[in-house]
Amino acid sequence: MRLGPHLHRIGNDIVAVYLVDTPDGVTVIDAGLAGQWRDLLAELTGMGRTLSDVKGVILTHGDGDHVGFAERLRRDHGVPVYVHPGDAARAKGGPKPANGRQSMKLGATLGFAAYSLRKGGMRTAYLTETVDANDGDTLDLPGAPRIIGLPGHSEGSIAIHVPIADAVFVGDGLTTRHVLTGKTGPQPAPFTDEPERAIASLRAILPTGATWVLHGHGTPWNAGVAAAVTAVEKAARV
Known about the structure:
The structure is a single chain. By secondary structure, the chain is an alpha/beta fold. It has seven helices and 13 strands. It has helices at 37-46, 64-67, 70-77, 88-91, 106-118, 195-201, 225-237; strands at residues 2-4, 7-11, 16-22, 25-29, 54-58, 81-83, 131-132, 146-149, 158-162, 167-171, 175-177, 184-187, 212-215. The strands form three sheets. Strands 1-2-3-4-5-6-7 form a seven-stranded mixed β-sheet. A four-stranded mixed β-sheet has the order 8-9-10-13, with no helix packed on it. The protein has a two-stranded antiparallel ribbon with strand order 11-12.
C-alpha cells in the first residue's frame, strides 16, 4: 500500500511494516512476521524495486512481531539490521520482562493470534547480528532516518524520524488498534514493560512535527504528531 511519494506499508491493521522509498534505495522499518516476506516481495515489485534495493532494516524494538523476516534479509541478502542496544538481546530471542495483566476481548485476541499463526508468528528467526542504533543517530540509509529514544514499551524502544516521508515511526510506542481488545484510536499499546514511562517518552517525538505517526498495529495516523500524543495521553487517563 502506497501512503505517500516515499512511503509504503505492507501487512494490515493487525501487524504492519513500513518501507521508505528514495532514489538511494529502500529502508525497511520493522520486519513484522516471518510470513510477511511474500508481502514484502510483492510490494517491492509494485514499487519497481527488488531486494537489492533494500539497504537496511531498522527495528523499533525487539519483539517477535517486529523481528519477523529481518534475519532472512540479513543472512540471505546482506542487509544490515539496526536496533537500539537496549533491545539487541530481545531481538536475538533473549528474555523479556513479564508484563502485567492485559485487558482483552475474545474476538480481538483470537483474531490477532490467528493472523500471527497464519503469517508465521511461530516461525520467527531471531537475529544473530545487529548494528547499534542509538538515540540521536542519523543513519546512513535511504531517507536519512534519525533515531529518537522512546523507552517504556521496552528498554530499547525507539522512534525513527524520516523527514522526506514526513513521518515518525514509533513501533509500539502507541497504537491505533489494541490487538487484544479491538479498541481503535490512539492509545497506549499492550505488552508494555513500563506503561508510565512509555507515555512520558512520547513527548520526545513532538519536535519532529511529522504528519504521519506510524506504528506496528492499527490504522496509519496522518493527523499530526501533536494530536496523536495528546490523544494517547488522554486515553491513558481513562
